Protein: Glycerophosphoryl diester phosphodiesterase
Amino acid sequence: MMHPQILLPTLIAHRGYSSAAPENTLSAVRAAHRAGARWVELDVQLLGDGTPVIWHDADVARCSDGRGKLRRMDWPQSQTLDVGRWFGSAFAGEKMPSLDAMLALLNELEMGVNLELKVSRGHDPIALVERVVPIVLEALPTERLVLSSFDRLALRHSRTFAKPERLALGMLFNRLPKDWQAQGREIDAFSIHAHWGRLKPAQAAAIRQAGYALLCYTPNDPNAFHPLWSWGAASAITDEPELFRRYLATSTV
Ligand code: G3P
Ligand code: MG
Structure:
């Protein structure tokens, strides 16, 4: 396996610093940077008009002052939403970020990103990949990008855009399936992103043995997560980057 030289950070701020700012926004990424995080995890999807945006859910109800499905919305409509006030009045007026705006900020801050290709129910993984992958390959250097997904088709199609040495692909799993090794080979995966609480030590060992980097989502208690460092975890994808940073500064992992 030929893989890019990616220096994975011990902590990755999940959806930006999502316990301190509205998730998946420019503010959340700035907050992560201020808290000392050098990488963020973000979700990308397409609006109905094909515009790639940074957003987690299939609809806008939970994280905005509006309602409705993302795939029924165009860019001008998306920009009428306030995506900050639900989190706190200090964030009132925050707008849903386009992928382009987010990439510009990541480059300004020189941050790395684990970009998750989020395939919501009823969304087309191929359309998502065709819009997003060329843009991120153009915008980001190899060593600051890991593209991940729960969606096998999205990962397979992403691989057709770049070789393993140029594009790190991460397979997201809730529970590790029996055929994870075959799935990894199929796309020449760089990493496996596992649910930290469901992962077993023997599975972690097998992942490391097979040569994949192990990233874990979404631990928020550094003490509870502690054993997973010795299992070979490279990164904790956390809503609490500040807690993890302080913990890592004082304990040996
Ligand atoms: O990429 C890790 C994690 O974000 C996967 O789950 O639902 O938070 O996108 P979710
Ligand atoms: Mg995600």
Remarks:
- The chain has one domain: 11-250.
- The radius of gyration is 17 Å.
